[in-house]
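User: We ran a pulldown and think these components assemble together. Before we commit to crystallization trials, I'd like a predicted model of the whole complex to look at. Sequences follow.
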Amino acid sequence: MNDFSSLSPLLILIGGALVILLLEAFGRWSSRLIHFILALGSLLSSLVMALTFWGKKVTYFSGAYILDDMAILMIVLFCLAGVLIIFISLTYMIEHGFNRGEYLALLLLATTGLIIMTSSVDLIVIFLGLETLSLASYVLAGLKKEDEKSSEAAIKYFLLGSLASAFLVLGLAFIFIQSQSFNLKEIISNISKGADNSIIFLIGLSLIIVGFGFKVALVPFHMWTPDVYQGAPTPITAFFSVAPKAAGFFVLFRLVSPFFEPIYLRQNLKIILFLLSSLTMIVANLVALRQRNVKRLLAYSSIAHAGYLSLALLSQDASGLIFYLIAYLFMNIGAFAILIALSPNGREFHDLDDFNGLASRAPWLAACMSVFLISLAGFPPTAGFLAKFYIFSNAIKQGYVVLVIIAVLTSLISVYYYLRVIVHMYMSKELPPQAIRINSDFLLLLIIFFCVYAVLQLGLFPGQVINFIQRASSSSPFL
Amino acid sequence: MTLPSISLITFLPLIGAILLIFIPGERKEIHRLVAFIVSLITFVFSILLFIHFDSNQVEPQFVENTPWLGYGINYHVGLDGLSLLLVMLTTFLFPIVILSGWRYIDHRVKEYHLFLLFLETGIIGVFVSLNLFLFYVFWEVMLIPMYFLIGLWGGPRRIYATIKFIIFTMAGSLLMLVAIFVLYNYYYQATGSYSFEIADLTKLILLPKVQTWLFLAFALAFAIKVPLFPFHTWLPDAHVEAPTAGSVILAAVLLKMGVYGFLRLAMPLFPQALIKFTPLLMILSVIGIIYGGCMALIQKDVKSLVAYSSVSHMGLIMLALFSLNQEGLQGSILQMINHGLSTGALFLIVGILYERAHTRLIKDFGGVSRQMPVLAAFFLIFLLSSAGLPGLNGFIGEILCLFGIFRVNKVMAYLAVTTVILAAAYLLWMYQRVMHGPIIHDHVRSFKDVNLREIVYLGPIVILMFWIGFYPNFFLKKMDSSVAFLLKKIEEKQKYFVFEGEPQKGFPLKLAIKEKSFSDSVQLDLKLAQESRLILSKEKKQP
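Assistant: Here's a predicted model for the assembly, 1022 residues in total across the polymer chains.
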C-alpha cells in the first residue's frame, strides 16, 4: 500500500527539530521549557503515528521506504529511547551549560536518521539514514565544548566514522555490481536465481559488516567506543549505547539474512560472524576488567553486549535480537541515569572510588544501580537474564554450542566487573556524606524507577512484549 | 487442598521482604520482629504441608502448574519425598538464624533481614521447582542475597570471599545452562514440542557420548555447590567470612542444593553417564572425606574447622548417593538433614562464642565451660551429633550411608568410616581445647552464659536431634516410596541399551529399545523413543 501519510513519523520529527532550531534562533522565550515540550511532543506523536500503521505494511517512494511491523517496533524503541534520554538530560544540560535548542534538535535529527535506516529496503536510503544519524552524532559527542575529552571524542568519532562509511559504500557498490540493483527485494531475487559469482557478494557483504561493525562496536572495529563514550556528555553516551546499536543490528540483520540462503555465502558468513562474535565477547569482557571509570566500564560492557547480539545475528533469531535490544535499552539507560545523578555542577564523578559508600549516601540510587548491574550481568529475575536466555537457547538450536560456551564464560567474567561496582557501593569505606552532591531531581528519579520497573517486568512477565515481537517478526518476515 | 500451599511458603518470605522495604530503617526492632514472624509463619505452613504429605504417593504432591513464558517454561512446583525434608529444614532454620543475629547485627538491620527473607524464597524455590527453567532461575536468584550477606556483614576478607563464592558457583551453573539448552533442544528434536519439565526431560534417552558431556556440565555445577574435593576451595573462605546466619544457611541448606541437584536432575537424566562416572565421583568423595577431616584437624580457627568438617561430611553424603541403593539414598537424604542440623548448630555456637570473645581462634579460649555450663552442654550435644554418637541423629544417617556404601564397594566403605573417626578426633580435641582446661585468658572470665533468646533457638535443634536419633522412621517413611521410585527409574533407564547407528553430524539423537518387559512408567518412554526414531529417519531421507 502506497501512502504518503506513512512518512508522518519522519516528518513530525524533522518538523519538530526545525521548529526547535527556529525558536532557539528567533524566539524570545524567557522560559525555555517550550523546547522540551516540543521535543517530547514530537517524539511521542511520531511514536503514536507509527503505531497507527501496525499491521498495515505501508510503503512509499516506490517501495524504498517501508513501514512494516518490525520497522514500527524499532520506531517505538527509538522514540522511547529519545523520550527517556530527554528526561534524564534535563538538569545535566542546564548544569553543563548546553544550548538546549541545539541539543534537542540534534537528538531529534539523530532519531530521524535511525528511523530512515530501519524502515527502508533500499541500500542507498539505508546509507542516507546512517549518514543523517552519524552527522548528528558527531556534533552531539562534541557538545561539551570546553572539555578536551569531548572534543577528542567528536574528532575521533568523525574520522573513524567516515572511514567506516567509506567501507560501507564500497560494500554496497560490490553488491550493486553483482545484482544490478540497490533494492533489497531485487537483490534477493537475484540471489535465488543463483549467483555463481558469489565471491563478489562475499566481498561486498564483508565490507558492509565492517561498516556496520564499526557502528555497533564489534571487535576489532571498536577502538573508538571507549573514548567516545567517555568523552561524550553522559546522556548522549546513553543514547549512543542504545539507539544506534539497535538500528545497526537491525539493519545488519536485514542485509545479512537473505545471504544466508546460498550455501557458499552462508558458510563464509558463519565463519566471519563466528570470529567477530567470539572476539568481541572475549576482548571486551577482558579489557573491561581493568577499567576504573564506570562510564568507560559501561562502554566496554556495551561492546560485550554487541558480542552477544551478534550471536543472535548468527543464529538468525529476529525476535531474540529485538527482545535483547529492548531489555538492553532499559537496563543501560537506567545505569547511565545513575551516572547522571553523579554528575553535579557540570562535573562528572564516575571513578569507581566515587561510588564508595553510595549505599549509605543514596540508598535508593545504589539499590537501583544494583538492579541494573545485576541485569547487565544476566542474573534472573531481570530482563538481562531472559534476553541472554532467548539468544543462547536459539543459538544452541542452530548448533553453535562452542560459541554459547564462550558466551557464558565471558559473561562469567562480566559478573566480576559488574559486581565490583556493587562492592564499591555497598562494601567499601564510605566517603563523607557531603563529598559528592547527588543530583537527584524528580524526573531523573522517575526515569530510574521506571527503568527498574521495566527491567523487572521484562524479566518476570514479558508475555505481552514477546507476543508483540513475535507477531511483528512472523507477520513481516523481514521484507 | 485447593490453597496454593507451595507458592505460599515459597513467596511468603518474599512478601515479608517487600514489607520490610516500607518500614523506616531506624526501627530496628520492628524489622527483626517482622522478619522473625514471617519466617515463623512460613515454618508453620510447612509443618502443615508435612502433615498432609501422603508418603505412599510417588508423584509430586501439592502440585501447581501454570504457563509462564511459553515454550515449555511453566511455573510448575510440587513436593515429593526427595524435597519435602529439605524444605522443612530450610523453613525450620530461618527463624533460628534470624533470632541468632538479633543482637549481633546492628548496622543495616533492614537490608540484612530483607536479604535473608529473599534468600529463603530462593532456596525453597530451588527445592520445589519441577520445571528446569524455574529451577535454574531460583538457583541463580539465590546467589544475589548470599553475595550481599557475605559481602556486607562478613569478616575482614569478606569481599574476596564473596566474589570467589559467586564466581565459582556461576562458573558451574552457566555451563549447566548450556547443557540445559542442549537438553531442551534434544527434547524438541525428539518430540517436536518444547518442554522444560523435568518429568518430560527424564524420558529422553540420549547417546552415551552426549550424556557424558551433559552429565559433566550438570555434575560440575552441583559438585561445586556440594562441594566435592577439588572444587571446595571457595567453601572455607565463604564460611569463615560470612556472618553466623550466612554460615548456617550456607552449610545447612545451600550445600544440600548440590546433592539435591544430583538426585533430582543429574542422576535420572543421564543414567548411563552416571554409571561411567560413578567410580570417579566416589573417589573424589572419599578424597574429600579424608582431606576435609585432616584439614579440620589442623585448623586454628573454630569456624574454619567446622567448615572443613563440612567438606568431610558432604563427602560421605555424596558417596552414599552414588552407591545407588535404597539404604544409601535414604541415608544420604537423612544425613543431609542431620548435617544441616548439626553443622548449622555448631556454627551457631561459634557465633555465640564470637559475639562474646570477638575472636574465633582456638588458642584464645580455654576453660569456657566453667563460665558457660549451659552452652557447654549444648555444644557437646551438637558435637556428638556431628560425630555420630548413637542415640543422636548423626548416627542413624551415617550408619545408613555406610550400609549403602558397603553393599556396593567394601574398600570405599572402609575408607568412608574414617569420617567418623576423624570427626570424633577433630571435634573432641577442639572441644577440649576450647571448653575445658584452666582459664588462661582473662577475657574468658567475662563471658556470660547463654541467655533466654539463645536457649530458645538452640533448644528446638536439640529436640529434633534426639527425635531423629530415637525415631528416624517418622522422617524416613516420608521418603521411602519416592526414593524407591527414583531408583527404579534410574535402573530401568539403564536397561535400555543404546543403539549406535551410523554417526550423524551435529547432535545425533538415537534411541533404541531393549525388548524386555516394561513397567507402565516406561511405556511413555517407549512411545517417545519410537516417535523420535521416526523423526530421525525422516531427517535422514531428506538429503
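Confidence is low (pLDDT under 50) at residues 497-526, 532-543 of chain B. That may be worth checking against your pulldown data before setting up trials.

User: Thanks, that helps.
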